[in-house]
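Before relying on records like the one below, remember that each one covers exactly one chain. Contacts with other chains, cofactors or solvent are not represented anywhere in the record.
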Amino acid sequence: MLFQRLRSFKAALFLIPMLLLCACKTELMTSLAEDDANVMLALLLQHGVRADKIQQKDGSDTLRVEQAQFAQAVALLHEAGYPRQSFQSMGQVFQASGLVSSPQQERARFLWALGQELSRTISDIDGVLTARVQVVLPNNDLLNREPTPSSASVFVRYKDQSAAQHLVPQIKQLVADSVEGLSYDRVSVVMVPVAQKDMPAVASVSSSEGYWTGLAMLPAMLVALVVGVFVSRRWPDLPERFRFRTK
């Protein structure tokens, strides 16, 4: 019996510092797709940030970094254009629901979904940081001899000196070919370059520094452990008394 108690006590002494080391990390990004989490994790590790990722029950990933490097990690990801904007697909916009939509609502949803799909495609171009596409399909009268033509506007933020700045004709052609009745000349594109500064310096945190930070809390944890053992031995039925009084 004594041997088992000593072994349990030694195990507790070993686990407490390990738990404290885990507690030194804080969440940086949550609800991330696996691909985005992997890219951001690789970027952080390449620049000396002590980071890791954990998978949540819903399948999404969470990025964690050392508390001392949190600000630098945020600046680093922001400079690289992360987290990337998320878009809704046609299937998500038009997913089945129990409500019956009016023709105007269906039209608005279609235009929104079309803009989302085009924005997603343009965002996949190398060097593009942000993309927004607005499509206008006039509700022309069939008897009108001069119908209003369709139009579209595209806003793109891209990394300066990247190849994206030379792709305006291709972007216009892509949008024109994706919308029925839309001509090339009715597509306007606004390109905004974003100067890429030098990546922010990241303060290095050695493993020993994180260890000693957690170890500084060890005395308080040991005191709490000893007090808990003493109380449980001195008053073994205390939890039962407490539950009885709270009823």
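The chain has a mean pLDDT of 76.
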